[in-house]
Structures are given as structure tokens and as C-alpha cells.
Amino acid sequence: MAPPPADGATAGPTQRALDAAEDRWRRAAADLDNLRKRYAREVAREREIERELVTSAFLPVLDTIDRALEHAAADPESIVEGIRTLREQALAVVSGLGYGREDEPGVPFDPARHEVVGLVDADGAGTPPGSVASVVRPGYGAPGRQLRPAAVTVAQRQES
Amino acid sequence: MAPPPADGATAGPTQRALDAAEDRWRRAAADLDNLRKRYAREVAREREIERELVTSAFLPVLDTIDRALEHAAADPESIVEGIRTLREQALAVVSGLGYGREDEPGVPFDPARHEVVGLVDADGAGTPPGSVASVVRPGYGAPGRQLRPAAVTVAQRQES
């Protein structure tokens, strides 16, 4: 692969250094190629591991659902308490994964966290214009990592 | 960085080829280093994306829990139906993520999918020795990707 030496030295020190340099380069290029292939496999595997971890975190919620159903026939009243436990458990999982719940009315409207699904009169809602009057569906996420915005109604000034 | 040419040529064709080869090698080594750093960042980001996707898949289950609680006070009976919906929804999420539920009694005991939590008499259980008599807690997983084994009691031959 090395060009024939034009300065007369058949295998002088410079030629040997050239061979060594070309060899190093070829190995670095091969390493680069191997690294690319290895990482492509690793990324797929890492995502699978994450999927397994997150799904496993939700399995106790499924267990609670199973138990709530088993007890439902025996005692329909106890099931309300069961669902309350279920909600706390599910919220603890989501919170443990790093995501908060956005369900506070009265806070200033923030387009990054809220999705407007309705407008209401500020006087009737009892909250200042431009604030969240009610949360129709809670939002979940972390700063910069929104899973979904909260669906809210926003208080506006009454047209006069 | 190149060693001084020992064969007398100050900048002959071989020397120039050597310089070019060393330059190529250094650039390949730098690419390799950059790629390593970039992939380390990407793997972290890919896991975050997967966590967001899986958690988002469970959000409708949280919504159903919220709604079930809201309706509980008005109609305690309807809540049993609500939990049944909840279970179907949660199982559909887990199944959609690629994991099945292992809750069948009567199947042959399989150490890869079952964890023994008790032994029962085969005649009393009505299932053949070596089979699963009852499932105490369902297992979840896919072939080779077990999230957790099913906790089961296993039927055994009566000591005589």
C-alpha cells in the first residue's frame, strides 16, 4: 500500500517510519469502525434495559390492581381506599422516575406546562386573569422534559 | 513529531508521505476519541428518551385511577368496573411494551419463569406432580427478558 520510495532508500528509517505510521492509521480506522458498530448495538441494549427498569417499577401498581379486584366482591367500600393507595403508589413511581405532577389551579398560566382547553371569566372563577382556573387533566414532567402538559382552563378578564 | 530523516533526504517524497500518514493517523485517533465522548452522551440521552416513552405509556392508567376515585363517592358499585378497566389498560400497556403476563396454573413448572413459594399435594391440587398448582403473584416478561418470575406453588407426589 505504501508508495515505492522515490529517494532511493529501499527500506530506510523514513520508509520504516512511514510503514509504521500507515499501520497505526489503519488500526485507528478499524477501531473507529468497530466502535461505531459496537455502540449501535449498545444503544439498542441500553434502551431495552431502561424499558425493563421502568416497566418493572410499575409492576407493584398492577399487583395492587389485582388485589383491589379480589377484595372488591367481598367489600365494595374498601375498594375506594384501595384506589387511593393505588394512586399514591402510581404517583410515587412516576415521581421516583423523576417526573412531577402538574395539577395546581390558581398558578399563573405557563404555555410550557399548560395546554388551554377552555377560557372562563376571572370573576366567576375567583382567580386572577391569566391564571389557571381549573385543571381538567393533570400534566406530568420535569423542567425541560415534559411528558405531557396539564390541560387547563384559564381565567380571563370579563368583556365589558 | 516526525523523527528527523536519517537517510539524508530533508523532505523527500517518502518523508512527505510519512508526514501525511502520521497526520491521517492523528486525525483518526482524534475522531475515535470524539466518537467515544459523543456516544457516552448519546447513550445517556437514549435512556432518558426510553424512560420518557415508557412512563408516558403509563399515564392513561393514572388518568383512569383519577377518574375511578372521582366516581367512587357517587357510585361505589361502579368502581369495581372501573378497576377492571384499569387492569385491562395496565396489562395492555405492559403487553404493548413487549412483556407478557405469566399467571396460568396447571402448566409444567419452569424454573426460568416460576419461583416456588410453596409445595402442595398433587392429588389435593388436582394437577400432575411437577406442575404449577396455583399462581400466588403473576410474573411478567418475554423469552430471555424476564421482568420478574411468577410466584407459584408446585404440585408434588404425596409421600407414602
TrEMBL record, chains A, B:
Main localisation: cytoplasm
Q: Which family does it belong to?
A: Belongs to the GrpE family.
Bias-annotated ranges (Low complexity): 7-18
Q: What lineage does UniProt assign to this protein's organism?
A: Bacteria, Bacillati, Actinomycetota, Actinomycetes, Pseudonocardiales
The cellular location(s) given in this protein's UniProt record come to:
Cytoplasm
Q: Give the species this sequence originates from.
A: Pseudonocardia benzenivorans
This one is known as Protein GrpE
Q: Which PANTHER family match?
A: GRPE PROTEIN, GRPE PROTEIN HOMOLOG, MITOCHONDRIAL
Q: Which Pfam families match?
A: GrpE
Q: Which HAMAP family match?
A: GrpE
* InterPro entries listed in its UniProt record: GrpE, GrpE_CC, GrpE_head
* Reported function: Participates actively in the response to hyperosmotic and heat shock by preventing the aggregation of stress-denatured proteins, in association with DnaK and GrpE. It is the nucleotide exchange factor for DnaK and may function as a thermosensor. Unfolded proteins bind initially to DnaJ; upon interaction with the DnaJ-bound protein, DnaK hydrolyzes its bound ATP, resulting in the formation of a stable complex. GrpE releases ADP from DnaK; ATP binding to DnaK triggers the release of the substrate protein, thus completing the reaction cycle.
Chain intervals for the UniProt region annotation (Disordered)? 1-20
Q: Which keywords describe this protein according to UniProt?
A: Chaperone, Cytoplasm, Stress response
Q: How does it assemble?
A: Homodimer.
Query: Matching SUPFAM superfamilies, A to Z?
Result: Coiled-coil domain of nucleotide exchange factor GrpE (SSF58014), Head domain of nucleotide exchange factor GrpE (SSF51064)
Highest taxon listed in the record's lineage: Bacteria
